[in-house]
Structures are given as C-alpha cells and as structure tokens.
Amino acid sequence: MTIRENLEELEKRNLSPYATHSVDSKGRAREEEQCDIRPVFQRDRDRILHSKSFRRLKDKTQVFLTPEGDHYRTRLTHTLEVSQNARTIAKALRMNEDLVEAIALGHDLGHTPFGHAGERALNRACPLGFEHAEQSVRTVDILEKSGQGLNLTYEVKDGILNHQTKGMPVTLEGRIVRLSDKIAYIHHDMDDAIRGGILKEEDVPKSICEVIGYTTGARLDHFIHDIVTTSYDKDDITMSEPVSEAMKALRAFMFEHVYTNPEAKSEESKAEMLIETLYDYHRKHLELLPTDLRNLIDKGESEDRVVCDYIAAMTDRFAIAKYEELFIPKSWHG
C-alpha cells in the first residue's frame, strides 16, 4: 500500500461523514497517473502554490490602491487569510483540509490588477464581459503552464468558480471557502480602513457590535465560532440567523463607508481608465501579446477573451509600467 493510499484510508476513518474524500473525487479533465505520496486535493494545492498566477497576487490590489504603508493587505495576503480561516473551520468540522486549502489558494488567481476597479473596467471594455471567478477557472484550466493548464480536479475548480455569493459549491469544503472569503475581506478591509484613518472602531453601529463584537478581531473570532457551532454534524455550512444578519449589516456598512467611499476610492477612476486603455490598445495590436496567448488565438480562442487574459494577469506594477511604456514619452519619466 502506498503512502497516498494510507492517507486516503485515514480520511475514511477520521473525516466527517459529510466530508469529501480524496478517493471519491470526480477526477481531472485529463487522466493522470496518481502520485504515490499525495492524495489528489493535496496535489492540486501544491500545483496552485507553485503557479505563476499565485505569485503575481503579491502585487495586486485588495482594496486600497498603492497605499502608504507596508501593512495593508494585497490580493495575496487576502488569499492567505481566506485559507487560514477556512482551514480552521474545516479542521473543527473534520472536513477535507487539503480540498479547502486548494480552493482557497486558487479562488482569486484570475483577479485583475487594481482590485474590483480593474474587474469593472475589463467587464465594460470586453464585449464578452469579465468576471474574476470565471477567469480564475480559466487560469488554472488553460492559461497556466503556457496553455497546458494545471489539470485540477473537478471539486477544486467547482469551489473556485462558486466562491462568490451568487454561487453554491457542490462540496461542503467549497462552502467553507465561500463563507471564509466574506468574513476575511470584511475583517481585513475594516482593519485596513481603520489603519488608513477612513474609519474608527466606534463608527461601527452598536446594533452590529452587540451581536458579533466590538473589535475587528472579536468579530472574526465570533464569525468562525458561529460557523463551526451552527454547522457541526450537519450536511451544510451555515451561520446562525442573528450572526448572518449582523454580517449582512456589517457588509452593507462597509460598502457605504469604505467600498464606495470617495476618500478610499479617489484613485479608482484613474485605474479603470488605465485598464480600459490597455485593453483597447492591445485589442488593436494583437501582435504585441505574448506568444502563448497568440497561440490561443491561432487555436480558435476569441481575440477579445485572450486580450482579457493578458490584462487580467497583470500586476498593478506591470500594468502601470506597460501604460507608461505605451503612452508616456520617455523624456517625461522621473
């Protein structure tokens, strides 16, 4: 018996009856020989962690564009916080931690530079539309490894695709990540907003604080405990009604005071203009796309979609540098 098979047996003995077992995966689009050490979801997690798109997350905006200070979240630190929250919940509920971690680490791989401002700009610019969860699946399916993709399992790709509110993953592990994403960004975006002087702790309505706590740390702890206690020994991942309502109210508060706050978002219109300009320029100059992307067009992929692939993969820094290279005279630099 291989090490992998021993680990699969341990899953059968130790995991919740509602957990997803590695041996029961629906598999990959392309069949592969099994690893002798790692079950399939652990293998997926490793592939995501070693991917170029994962490394690029460190230079992509979470909420605040080019903030002054070293402690604001990036898309990478957001991803790691989602993963940590999700693993804490999964361990307590005896779910498959490898599956949870793979979904969490991969859920934002297709996100644009400049956060949701970049996503809105690409969605406007591209006739086919743009949505980052779909782009994350496209990234792992097609774009990674020069067009070969990572060939991830069905369960991981389903969790990535359905991590937003409008989706519902087929596995409980995917549903853990879906909730963990929300509580992570509500927690850390408020923490960053307080650090940036946009909010104060006392600004949060008392009606919310009375339910889930008076500090960002207390609220995160309350969310995680509530998900665990409410979902324990159940075939679902949920929050209690009072905490769910408090989270919705806190999210609405964040949209009003941070996500649409002119002070926090004063630079976003510039970022959107930059993204739309880059899209329009490369749509007219396909010859400037990298070779692996031009090869996708030669294979029949939509030109609009492939230009989106190029722009979405950019880091903030690369997008700014590319804009300067194309549109700013060299004598003006510096």
Write the layout of secondary structure elements.
Elements: H1 3-14, H2 40-49, H3 52-56, H4 75-93, H5 97-106, H6 115-125, H7 132-147, H8 154-161, H9 172-195, H10 206-212, H11 216-231, H12 241-259, H13 268-284, H14 291-298, H15 303-313, H16 316-327
Description of the molecule:
This protein has helices at residues 3-14, 40-49, 52-56, 75-93, 97-106, 115-125, 132-147, 154-161, 172-195, 206-212, 216-231, 241-259, 268-284, 291-298, 303-313, 316-327. The chain starts with a helix and ends in a 7-residue tail after the last helix. It is mainly alpha-helical and 334 residues long. Helix 13 packs across helix 15 and helix 13 (268-284) packs across helix 16 (316-327). It has one domain: Hypothetical protein af1432. It has 16 helices and no strands.
Q: Over the alpha carbons, how many angstroms does the gyration radius reach?
A: 21 Å
Shape: flat
Q: Strand count, sense and closure of the main sheet?
A: none
Number of domains: 1
Question: Stretches where pLDDT falls below 50 for ≥5 residues?
Answer: none
Question: H/E series, N to C?
Answer: HHHHHHHHHHHHHHHH
CATH topology name, in short, is Hypothetical protein af1432
CATH architecture: Orthogonal Bundle
CATH superfamily, called what?
Hypothetical protein af1432
Report the helical percentage.
Answer: 55-70%
